[in-house]
Structures are given as structure tokens and as C-alpha cells.
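Instructor's aside before we start: the two examples that follow are unrelated to each other. I chose them only because their records fit on one page, so don't look for a connection. First example below.
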Amino acid sequence: MGGAKQKEQKNACLSGRRIRLAEALDIPKETVYGLSCVTMIGDREIYIENYMSILEYTDKKLRLRVKGGNLLITGCRICILYFNDTDMQVRGCIDQIQFERR
């Protein structure tokens, strides 16, 4: 038990150092942690940064694997305009964005 608690404390300490370093260098936290960043423009367009993979894609649903879970986007006429290994631009009539924790 002691080993697990020590590991947890060490991870918390490292996490705190990363946050302070990111703040000192003015680096976005999503970059430091590899988290996804979702920017929505109205109900018509979404920019997603740092996604891992496309799990499901139809004109009504887009499910992406992201760190810590899945990102589900639902609506109609959903279309991926652009994507590369980490970033994506999606257009359509967006009804909902939901994070599904793994």
C-alpha cells in the first residue's frame, strides 16, 4: 500500500511542476498534458486539436478517441472538412458535443 501512495504523491508533484512550468513559459496546458482542445463556432463548425483516432463517422455522428475517453459529436450533415494526425475541422448542424469517460 505504501508504494501506491508514494507513486500517487510523486505523480501529483510532477503534475504540479508541469502546471507551474507551463504557466511560467506561457504554454497552453493542453499542450503540456496532450489534452484535446475543442473550439466551436456557433452550431456549424468545430475545430478539434489533439485527437487520437476516428472511431465512428456518419452524417449524423462523429466519435473520436481522445485522451481519457471519447468525444461524441451529434447532429445532421456532419462532414469532416479537414484532418491530419492530430487536428480536424468538422462542419454540419451540431446538436451536441459529449465527452464519454473511459
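Example two begins here.
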Amino acid sequence: MSETVVTASSIPAGGNKAPPAGMVGPWAWLKANLFNSWLSTATTLLLGYLILRAAVGFIDWAFIHAIWTVPYSAKGVPDTSSCQNAKEVGACWAVIGDKYRLILFGRYPYEEQWRPALCVVLFIGLYIVSAMRRFWRKELALIWIVTLSAIFILMGGGLFGLKEVQNDYWGGLPITLILATFGIACAFPLSILVALGRRSTKLPAVKLLCVLYVELIRGVPLISVLFMASVMFPLFMPAGVNIDKLLRAQIAVILFAAAYLAEVVRGGLQSLPKGQYEAADALGLSYWHKTGLIILPQALKLVIPPLVNTFIGFFKDTSLVLIIGLFDLLTMGKVALSDPPWQSFSTEVYIALAIIYIGFCFAMSNYSRGLERELGRGERR
């Protein structure tokens, strides 16, 4: 019996034909997702019309008929008559040009505002470096310590010839970044310990304390925790020892964030199959080696989306520190609107604030999606 050898040349050319043009590409996607029925087509056209009309109206208001500058009197008082005349037609972005320093840096001394501006740059640089996986080494902890120390020296002064500025004068974006960064950085390791303690089977007292802590903190709003931090912390301090408002707010944010993050981490720990724990035990690893090398890396990878969602929530919740007299970014926007010439232009101020918040939150969200794809690359089928 003769054998038949199949070669590439013996395969009919028609087997390698590309799919029809109408089956792939953007037009095929539009047809399959937006115009696959008469109802879908009608809905697409209606929504497209509404979105286009809203976009044209916004562009017309925000850019074409907008007022970008206003004249000032000899005393430095802005003349907002042109903005008042165009109030319903165009935006008055001159309010941002006049108040951006107050919004971003609060009551920080005007001539020293280069220091909080540099701190914001250092924060952004720290986030970028921390997001790069090639820097995920022990040296990253040193980078954090040096950068955060430099930020506090710049903000507070009193060293290296810098004028001392009490933190009562800190405000705006630096306060928001300080509370969010320190809050999340300290709350995350605390949340891991609380999650492990809540799942402990050999330390019932520790488990009870962790359960009480999580349930108590999650049972009250952040405003209540901030208020209690402002009122109760000084009562537990020795006579003559006073904790400033910023530290009180920071402790409250850390405790509140840790309780929520602990539940996210606990969910990741519980989602791992039992075989992972048994395999680690079979290798003879100690509890901490098993947890740090096998269990936690897998658990944290599974809960990246809810972790980042919690981070974003707490970044925005820093605006609640007004309750104890701290002036964050959002609060400084409200303070800027208390100036009589600009009181009727709140829309422009809140849009500018929203762009800043959206920028930071979108960066966190986009990075988490990329990290999730990268870490899950080996598990794709």
C-alpha cells in the first residue's frame, strides 16, 4: 500500500482565503453591535443625536463663546461684567485664572507656593515610578521614604533655610494627595494583617478583635470617624500632648480605609482553592512563608479591581476632612467661590475640580486594568 504525503503545496489555495470583508473590521462591528435590528438602529440614531447635540452645545459654551480673561482695576479687583453678560452663552474661565493658586495650594504663603507645587510633582513622580514593575524591588521602599520625607520638609519648612509653615495653612491639592497617599499606603498592610487575623483559627482572641474592628468601622460613615478622631484622640493623649488636625485626619482615614480593604483582601483569600494551602503545607513552609510567598500573591491578584475601586473611593472621600477644619482641593474650590465677584460662576470651578479628580481616578483605573491583564497573561487559554 502506497503512502500519500501531504505537503503545503498540495493543500488547495481556497483553504487560506481571508474572511469576507463584511465579516471583519469596523463596519462589521457597527453592524453587529449597533445596527443589528430596527430597534437597535433606532436607539443608536437617537442616542447619537442626543450625544452630538450635547457635545456641540458644550463645545459652544466651553470654548467658542467662553470668556478667558477679564480686566482688573488698579486695586486688583476683577471686572466680571463681560462674564455676567455672557453667563448663559459662554463659560467664564477667567475665574480659574484668578483663583487657581487658591484652589490648588490653599492659604499657603503666596511667595512660597513653589514648594507645594513641587510636592505635587514629587507625588506624581512617585506614583509613576511605583507603577513600573522594574522598580518593584526593595529599593522602592527607600524611594518612598526619601520622597515622602522631602515632601514633608518642603511643606513644613524649618530646615535647609526653608521658611516654616504650620500645617494649618496647608490646603488644596497637596492635602488631598497627602491624605490619600499616606492613608492608602498605611492602610493596605494593616488591612492584610486584619484579614489574616479574621481568618485565624488558632488565635480566637485576635480573630474577635479583628471582627469587632471591621464591623465597628464599617458600621459608621467616615464623617463620624473623622469627628471622633477630632474629639476623642486628644482625650487619650497625656497631659500637654496635642495632636494636630492633619495627623488626626490621617489616622482616621487609615483606620477607615483599612477596615474596607481588609474585607476585600479576605475575599481574595477565601477565593483560593484549598489545594493551594495544602500544597504549601506539603512543602513544609512556615505560616508566614506560606502566606507571603504563595497565598497572598495569588489572592491579591484576584482582587485587583475591588482594591483599586476602594482606592478611588478613598481618594475622593478625602474631601470630607472639612469636618475637622482641613481645606482640601474641593473645599478650596468652595472657598474661592466665596469671593463676591466670582460667586455666580460655580459651574466653571466645579468642572475644573472634576477634571483633576477624573485625571487621578482614571489613571488608577487604567493602570489597574493593565496590571490585571499583565498578571493574568499566564492564565489565559
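The mean pLDDT is 88.
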